[in-house]
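Customer escalation, tier 2.

The customer says the design service returned an amino acid string that "doesn't look like it belongs to this structure." They asked us to rerun it and document both sides in this ticket. The original structure tokens are below, unchanged.
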């Protein structure tokens, strides 16, 4: 839908409300002339706020530090949180702010008998609380965002993850039933920024989230998970094609509604310049000729070339179309892009017989940063270490990610690829969900379609590394790749399966990947008793010692007793 038109409509509605209220101001002095009476709020105007904020926050996780954790990306500046999990306490105020608005949406929908809006509110409630408990562990749930009802709720209790996941599942089942009625009473399509008011697609979204959360609890409650996933599969109502993915497009009008790291609102382009593909991911994409490679990433600006005829160990200067550019050790990113657009190729030569044995240069066209380097800006003998000029010997993201909006720049909350891979995993468990191989290939096809390269599917699946082998490791690897920009799901999959088998880099304070966020200072300062109870429910591990029990390496309920991921 056109979100700019929606924004204009919302502003116009606000102006009408202000004008009307001002007319009553002289006779109703106790009313806020600029306020909206909760008793007359329109659920359509509440939906976009909840949906856009949830999508932006979720994308921000998977494209941000969690993308670094799952080694989709690495950074070569301001990198410690991204590359090596040097995390501080993180508050969840934004997520509970969304839920406060969502509660109001649900309340108004029920008052008005708007089944569609109630279904949306239940789905978003599950998504929001699901993300919170997945990230932190035990959290306020049954008494959350109820401070206006009673003082006892000003310091809400933390519910166990077991309670929260059970509540999420029940809410999604209720939402699915509401959408199944097809009732669109009161719906204004343009205010639904995911599916334009289509209850059938919303039901598929809700059921796909059910697949997600059933699989999430599969190690802790296998019987519940098995029955739930089999039921959803039997219904046939879940996201099956990339066209049905739950996505939000960006407007691109300002930094708040643009793709993260866009250069339009960053004159130095430093945020864009510092995010790189991780070597871990490229090592899977390049050998298999994965068609998503060129969509997501760019070739290096300057490729290393082994040249045994060179009389020195390493060229001091870069070469343009094979000709040494005397005195020129590097160009800026802007200069390189302009020259490469004209068809010029830049290289730098070295003599493999003369360089030190400890210096290992990556001569590939696509070069990623290894995970958790002590100084990633120096990698691959970069002549410009630091944060001023990009590393010409390491790949950058595709230029599309410089933009503010459009094309593939979408926040993806759930996808056909994810649903297919969940069913492939379920089939490997022996559950009654059809053919695992078919689901595996459907997951790959749906991911390629989502990134605009579905036409290359037939050739891609013939690659040795991709052809179905019937192992969980292969299913989870392809699901991990498909979660590009939504790496949060890959993290939670890794946490419960240990797959893909990622290792921490040398800069990590611990030799293993973290499994949760650290509870924020607000909870410790203002809800201390309940905070202490939640922390006590975490499981100490040998890696928790640096921070104590409220550590990114302490295990929440969902993985306690599973021996996963480490």
């Amino acid at each position: 839908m056109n979100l700019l038109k929606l924004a204009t409509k919302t502003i116009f509605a606000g102006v009408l409300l202000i004008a009307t209220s001002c007319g009553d101001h002289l006779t109703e002095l106790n009313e806020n002339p600029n306020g909206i009476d909760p008793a007359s709020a329109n659920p359509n105007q509440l939906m976009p706020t909840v949906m856009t904020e949830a999508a932006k926050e979720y994308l921000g996780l998977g494209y941000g530090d969690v993308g670094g954790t799952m080694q989709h990306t690495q950074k070569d500046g301001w990198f410690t949180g991204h590359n090596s999990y040097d995390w501080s306490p993180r508050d969840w105020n934004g997520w509970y702010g969304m839920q406060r608005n969502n509660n109001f949406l649900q309340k108004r929908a029920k008052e008005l008998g708007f089944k569609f809006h109630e279904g949306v509110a239940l789905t978003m409630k599950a998504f929001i609380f699901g993300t919170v408990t997945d990230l932190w562990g035990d959290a306020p749930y049954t008494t959350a965002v109820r401070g206006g009802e009673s003082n006892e709720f000003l310091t809400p209790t933390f519910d166990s993850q077991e309670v929260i996941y059970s509540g999420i599942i029940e809410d999604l089942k209720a939402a699915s039933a509401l959408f199944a009625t097809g009732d669109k009473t009161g719906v204004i399509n343009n205010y639904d920024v995911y599916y334009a008011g289509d209850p059938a697609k919303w039901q598929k979204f809700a059921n796909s989230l059910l697949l997600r959360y059933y699989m999430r609890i599969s190690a802790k409650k296998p019987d519940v998970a098995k029955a739930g996933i089999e039921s959803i599969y039997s219904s046939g109502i879940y996201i099956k094609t990339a066209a049905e993915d739950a996505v939000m497009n960006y407007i691109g009008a300002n930094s708040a509604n643009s793709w993260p790291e866009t250069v339009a609102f960053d004159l130095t382009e430093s945020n864009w310049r510092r995010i790189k593909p991780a070597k871990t991911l490229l090592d899977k994409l390049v050998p298999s000729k994965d068609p998503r490679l060129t969509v997501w990433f760019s070739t290096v600006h300057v490729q290393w070339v082994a040249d045994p005829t060179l009389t020195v160990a390493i060229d001091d200067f870069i070469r343009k179309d094979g000709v040494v550019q005397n005195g020129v050790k590097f160009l800026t990113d802007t200069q390189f892009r302009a020259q490469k657009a004209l068809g010029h190729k830049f290289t730098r030569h070295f003599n493999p017989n003369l360089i030190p044995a400890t210096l290992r240069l990556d001569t590939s066209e696509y070069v990623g940063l290894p995970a958790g380097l002590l100084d990633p800006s120096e990698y691959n003998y970069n002549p410009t270490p630091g944060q001023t000029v990009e590393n010409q010997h390491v790949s950058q993201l595709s230029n599309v990610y410089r933009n503010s909006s459009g094309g593939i720049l979408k926040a993806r909350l759930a996808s056909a690829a994810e649903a297919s891979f969940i069913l492939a995993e379920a089939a490997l468990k022996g559950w009654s969900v059809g053919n695992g191989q078919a689901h595996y290939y459907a997951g790959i096809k749906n991911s390629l379609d989502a990134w605009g390269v579905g036409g290359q599917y037939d050739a891609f699946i013939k690659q040795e590394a991709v052809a179905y082998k019937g192992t969980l490791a292969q299913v989870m690897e392809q699901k991990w790749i498909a979660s590009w920009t939504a790496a949060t799901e890959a993290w939670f999959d890794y946490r419960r399966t240990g797959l893909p088998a990622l290792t921490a880099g040398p800069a990590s304070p611990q030799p293993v990947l973290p499994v949760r966020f650290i509870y924020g200072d607000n909870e410790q300062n203002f809800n201390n008793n309940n905070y202490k109870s939640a922390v006590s429910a975490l499981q100490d591990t040998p890696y928790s010692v640096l921070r104590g029990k409220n550590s990114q390496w302490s295990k929440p309920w969902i993985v306690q007793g599973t021996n996963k991921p480490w």
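Tier 2 assessment: The sequence is consistent with the input. The chain has a mean pLDDT of 93. The beta strands are 73-75, 139-140, 158-159, 246-249, 275-277, 302-306, 319-320, 323-324, 346-350, 410-414. Sent an explanation to the customer and offered a walkthrough call.
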